[in-house]
Amino acid sequence: MGRIAQVSKVISEGGYDKIFQQTFECLPDEKLKKAYACYLSTSHGPIMGVLYVSTAKLAFCSDSPVAYVTEDNKTESAIYKVCTRRDVQ
Protein backbone atom coordinates (compact mmCIF):
# COMPACT_ATOMS: atom_id res chain seq x y z
CA MET A 1 0.00 0.00 0.00
CA GLY A 2 1.45 3.38 -0.94
CA ARG A 3 1.38 6.48 1.22
CA ILE A 4 -1.57 8.00 -0.69
CA ALA A 5 -3.59 4.83 -0.16
CA GLN A 6 -2.61 4.81 3.51
CA VAL A 7 -3.77 8.41 4.00
CA SER A 8 -7.08 7.53 2.33
CA LYS A 9 -7.47 4.57 4.71
CA VAL A 10 -6.70 6.74 7.74
CA ILE A 11 -9.27 9.34 6.70
CA SER A 12 -11.98 6.78 5.88
CA GLU A 13 -11.47 4.89 9.16
CA GLY A 14 -11.61 7.96 11.38
CA GLY A 15 -7.96 8.83 11.98
CA TYR A 16 -4.90 7.23 13.54
CA ASP A 17 -6.47 7.28 17.03
CA LYS A 18 -9.38 5.12 15.96
CA ILE A 19 -7.20 2.71 13.95
CA PHE A 20 -4.81 2.38 16.91
CA GLN A 21 -7.65 1.58 19.33
CA GLN A 22 -9.18 -0.98 16.94
CA THR A 23 -5.85 -2.67 16.16
CA PHE A 24 -4.32 -2.88 19.64
CA GLU A 25 -5.85 -3.56 23.04
CA CYS A 26 -5.75 -0.21 24.85
CA LEU A 27 -5.97 0.74 28.50
CA PRO A 28 -8.91 3.00 29.46
CA ASP A 29 -6.70 6.07 30.06
CA GLU A 30 -4.21 5.34 27.24
CA LYS A 31 -3.71 8.13 24.67
CA LEU A 32 -2.02 8.02 21.28
CA LYS A 33 0.79 10.59 21.21
CA LYS A 34 2.16 10.16 17.65
CA ALA A 35 1.86 7.95 14.58
CA TYR A 36 4.67 7.66 12.04
CA ALA A 37 4.66 6.09 8.57
CA CYS A 38 7.77 3.91 8.47
CA TYR A 39 9.44 0.67 7.43
CA LEU A 40 10.18 -2.00 10.03
CA SER A 41 13.39 -3.85 9.26
CA THR A 42 13.01 -7.65 9.56
CA SER A 43 15.11 -10.67 8.61
CA HIS A 44 12.86 -11.07 5.56
CA GLY A 45 13.22 -7.44 4.47
CA PRO A 46 11.49 -4.13 5.23
CA ILE A 47 7.77 -4.03 6.03
CA MET A 48 5.85 -0.81 5.36
CA GLY A 49 3.45 0.28 8.08
CA VAL A 50 2.73 2.68 10.92
CA LEU A 51 4.62 3.08 14.20
CA TYR A 52 2.31 4.17 17.03
CA VAL A 53 3.63 5.84 20.19
CA SER A 54 1.11 6.01 23.02
CA THR A 55 1.29 6.84 26.70
CA ALA A 56 1.50 3.09 27.47
CA LYS A 57 3.05 1.32 24.47
CA LEU A 58 5.11 1.40 21.31
CA ALA A 59 3.40 -0.55 18.50
CA PHE A 60 3.81 -1.28 14.79
CA CYS A 61 1.21 -2.52 12.31
CA SER A 62 1.90 -3.34 8.66
CA ASP A 63 -0.10 -1.59 5.94
CA SER A 64 -0.88 -4.86 4.18
CA PRO A 65 -0.67 -8.59 4.93
CA VAL A 66 2.76 -10.26 4.91
CA ALA A 67 3.10 -13.72 3.32
CA TYR A 68 4.69 -16.59 5.26
CA VAL A 69 4.99 -20.38 4.95
CA THR A 70 3.29 -22.55 7.59
CA GLU A 71 4.69 -25.76 9.11
CA ASP A 72 2.70 -27.84 6.60
CA ASN A 73 4.29 -25.87 3.73
CA LYS A 74 1.25 -23.73 2.86
CA THR A 75 1.57 -20.04 2.08
CA GLU A 76 -0.63 -17.78 4.20
CA SER A 77 -0.65 -14.08 4.98
CA ALA A 78 -1.38 -11.95 8.01
CA ILE A 79 -1.05 -8.37 9.18
CA TYR A 80 2.33 -7.97 10.92
CA LYS A 81 1.96 -6.47 14.41
CA VAL A 82 4.54 -5.77 17.11
CA CYS A 83 3.72 -4.24 20.47
CA THR A 84 5.79 -3.47 23.55
CA ARG A 85 4.97 -1.72 26.81
CA ARG A 86 6.58 1.63 27.56
CA ASP A 87 7.92 2.15 31.06
CA VAL A 88 7.63 5.91 31.38
CA GLN A 89 8.52 7.51 34.69
From TrEMBL:
It comes from the Eukaryota. Residues 18-76 form the GRAM domain. Gene3D superfamilies: Pleckstrin-homology domain (PH domain)/Phosphotyrosine-binding domain (PTB). Pfam families: GRAM. Belongs to the GEM family. This is GRAM domain-containing protein.
